[in-house]
Amino acid sequence: MKRHGFPLLVYSLFISSVKSHFFTIVNQQQQIEAAVGGHIVLRVRASSDVRSGSWRFSCTDVAVWIGNATDINNNYSGRAELLGIGSLSLKSLSVNDSGEYVVTMNPSSYNGSVTSRIDLNVLEPVSNPEIVASVSQTLEDNGTVTLNCNLSGDSPSIRWIKNGHFLQYNDRMNLSSDNQTLTITFVNRSDSGNYQCEGHNPVSNKTSDPFFLTVYYGPEAPQISTDPDKRGITLGSNVTFMCSVQSFPPSEFEWFLNGEHLEQKERQMTIVNIGLNDSGYYTCRAYNNMTRKYTNTTQRMNVIEPVSKPEITVDVLHPIEHNDTVTLTCNVTGDVSFLEWIKNNQHIQIDERIKISPDNTTMTVTSVNRSDSGTYRCNARSPANNETSDPFRITIWYGPDTPQLTIVDEKEAYTLESNVTFKCSADSLPPASFEWLLNGKSLQQKSQEPVIFNIARDGFGNYTCKAYNNGTKRYSATTKRITEVEGITKPKITANPLHPIEHNDTVTLTCDVSGHLRSLVWSQNQYVLNASENMKLSKGNKTLTISAVERSDAGNYTCKAKGPIGDKESDLFQLTIYYGPDEPQIFMNPEEAILSYGSNVTLTCKVESLPPSEFKWYLNGISLPQNEKQLIISNISKENSGNYTCETHNKETNLSKRQTIQVVVSKTMDLADYKTKSWVAAGVVCLLVVIAICACIIIKKRQSSG
Prior knowledge:
Blueprint: E1 12-14, E2 23-25, E3 31-35, E4 40-46, E5 50-57, E6 60-66, E7 69-72, E8 80-83, E9 87-90, E10 99-107, E11 114-123, E12 130-133, E13 137-139, E14 145-150, E15 157-162, E16 165-166, E17 173-175, E18 181-184, E19 193-201, E20 204-207, E21 211-216, E22 223-227, E23 232-234, E24 239-244, E25 252-257, E26 260-262, E27 268-271, E28 280-288, E29 293-304, E30 311-314, E31 326-331, E32 338-343, E33 346-347, E34 354-356, E35 362-365, E36 374-381, E37 386-388, E38 392-394, E39 404-407, E40 419-425, E41 433-438, E42 441-442, E43 451-454, E44 461-469, E45 474-482, E46 492-496, E47 507-512, E48 519-524, E49 527-528, E50 535-537, E51 543-546, E52 555-563, E53 566-569, E54 573-575, E55 585-589, E56 601-606, E57 614-619, E58 622-623, E59 630-633, E60 642-650, E61 655-663, H1 671-705
Parallel strand pairs: 1-4, 3-11, 13-21, 23-29
Antiparallel strand pairs: 2-4, 4-9, 5-6, 5-10, 6-7, 8-9, 10-11, 12-14, 14-18, 15-16, 15-19, 17-18, 19-20, 19-21, 22-24, 24-27, 25-26, 25-28, 28-29, 30-31, 31-35, 32-33, 32-36, 34-35, 36-37, 36-38, 39-40, 40-43, 41-42, 41-44, 44-45, 46-47, 47-51, 48-49, 48-52, 50-51, 52-53, 52-54, 55-56, 56-59, ...
């Protein structure tokens, strides 16, 4: 706390109570205080008109001045002094200097005087305080402490300070009426500290030396911490125990393990290369030699042995599917807190076949199957580490399953000398070996690869592929039967009748084929035929019957026979339908309604008929010698006029048809003659015109030359 004092030489005070045109006394307060032995100046500001004055105390002049002459009372010799015009200085103040001081001023221009008063109070400063305590050391919650602040001086005021700050009082602290005594009840540790008392009055301020109050407490319940900070310590590592406790003075410590005393006396204890025997309950006991109290706490520490790398063993090296039960064991040492089984990087799901022991060290799989094959691992954990075994492969032997026996391009039946390719496969582990049998007898074939057999006379029957697994000692077989069949002959088509007549005949086409026939298909001009209104197929399609044949039924017919070992097709059979003749048509060239004498004309008779028709011509009902489809009439004359008839006859259908056309010959000159004579006349006229023109030209030339 900062101490406050007073100046030893001068203490100045301005006083003012009266203002006039003669002088001014500066006055800020009616009473001033000063310390014993101190120095004070009572200062006056006076005008130049003031020529004399005096200061009085207790009806006695202290100092008088007239002009520049001054007179100081002998009782104040050496202590009082006039300064300037009317200011009074007093030194070495004592308590007797306390009282009322009166200053009087006499101006030269004024009949009378002017006065003013002020009280001076001289006080004894406070002495240096001293704290006196009932005790300097005490126990927490054990009693009451009284602190007395001893000091002297006039009207001192007292304040208490703790640790450099004014004391914050609580309900356990009591102050006397003059604040000189501080009483603390039910003392606790928070009351420890440096106490001071400060004494002050208007003229002084003093603070005592510090007094330290010591409060002894504890030990309270200790707390044990460890480094590393875990309850499980790995075997062989170092661990440090730290015992923390609230206590003053600091506690003494003792350590115990499972109740047995350890040679450790410090709050910190380190165990190097901790062993399994160091597991247990560690107790820290704290003792305070001032409070005479003990307290302790206990903490369990486990020494953990790290797990070793697990190793998997199995009781059956190659278990057989649906036959064996296999047990896998995870061999591991150390403090195992958790153990799990993993298959193909997936956690194993327990089911009705898979059982795990309560400690998880063994896993039993009953009635193993091929899906149990895979890579197994066991993972072991302790609070100190985590280890996983190397992969352990379990291979389940199984099979052989029923072989898959196939025939390349398989047929229902085969002929002699046919090559038959067999393929045989079977799921099996280890892989199966194969043997081929025909009708129960070995064929001395051991391969799984495709096998080709040439079917001889004794090669028909049951072919068996037998698979054998040397690991499971099991057999499995599949059989295919190869059946002999007679091959079909090449089909041949016959027709009845051979040349049917349109609209008159019904024709039957027969497909002659022998052998094991599966189906038969008819085609006409490469289009497959189906039964229709006029086409009927017999059962098995061997005959095709066409009723009331038409010429459109003609064409190239085939029949295709399908057998168990292949197809065969007949040669083309051309079916010819006889028809006609249809209605003939006669064409005349030239196409003239009336023919001229001497001209030539050709008559053509056209008709649809198969085979081609025979022709015969008639003129006006009289047979002509021509028997061709064309009739040529040269140099026609009147005798050639009339009705020309063309008669057609098909000797196969025995049908005939006729057609008639009229030919008319004109009696006048024939058109050709007329045209010829007209051209001659025109030529003669043209020649005469040319001659006349030439004659005119010659005449003109002669005249011009003459």
